[in-house]
Amino acid sequence: MSSDLDTDTDSVRAIFQSYDGMEGLSHAVSPAPARPQAARWQALFLKIYPGFLLSATIALAATWLSQHYQSPVMLFALLFGMTFHFLHQEGRCVTGIEFSSKAVLRVGVALLGARITAGQILELGAMPIAAVVTGIAGAVALGAFAAPRLGLSRSFGVLSGGSVGICGASAALAIASVLPRTDESERDTLLTVVTVTILSTIAMIVYPLFVAAIGLDNTSAGIFLGGTIHDVAQAVGAGYSISPLTGDVATYVKLLRVTMLLPVVFAIAFLVNRGARRGKSGAKPALPLFLVGFAALVVVNSVGLLPKPVSSAAGEVSRWCLVTAIAALGTKTSFKDLAAVGWRPVGLMAAETALIAAIVLIAVELA
Description:
mainly alpha; globular; UPF0324_pro; transmembrane; cell membrane
């Protein structure tokens, strides 16, 4: 007959997680129905919170520096996260970092829908919509076509093209979440976020000078800035640096690009699932739930059921989630991994940036 000394570690932990165990009762005694579930949630929380707390702390520090030095918060979060790469290699933080880079990311992307209404988009008219759709399609097509010819994966081409065409780091995170997982997936995502953030910062400085030099009016300048600058905050900031009207137009055009996140990511997820089904007969496509949440929030906000304070709060939570996810991704990647990829990814994303700028500028001039 076995004694208490023969009980394995998991059984000991289970015994001491219940009051019955503390009373010395046998592990075979059935506890109250709610206790096993509560114990599992508690165990999950204890696994997640160290890595999540690390990611959230890095996000908080990055936000503080961004506000005080007027620099991209995503870039700060990435760089800070990469300095803590050793914590992802082993130890208590690994599970929480993985949770932050995936689950928290999806929540942040879904909540982006609270910032958008259909009315904002329809007020722009046909020309900006056509220019934005063409620019996004062109950037993704260029990436998918050119990446294999530069020795890069087609997935990276789609990831970089979508990031440049839609909304920078946020789009990169959303698209990466539905692309096939490979050994280079995390590195490619981090490289895309770093490069698109740098290119967006350069565009925020250079493009207002460019539109002034070629003589665009306030409305046309807003369409160009909103349709070409990658990051939402930088597009809005560049627009308002010219005039309030330019800032308003740039904001709406940029939100139009954010709206395109839903169909683009859904289309990529569909194609990925269809490719996977070729090797697995009978497999059903998985519908990304965060895209469903994104679409639902857009609809609810468009019909006026989402109060302004709630919409603003959701936007702020979305920003925090995305910065936290970026910090977590940073801890999963080393500087050595990024330095090893060379100039080709940067050159590809620069070409995608130039292409979308040319498409939007031609549309503005023709209109």
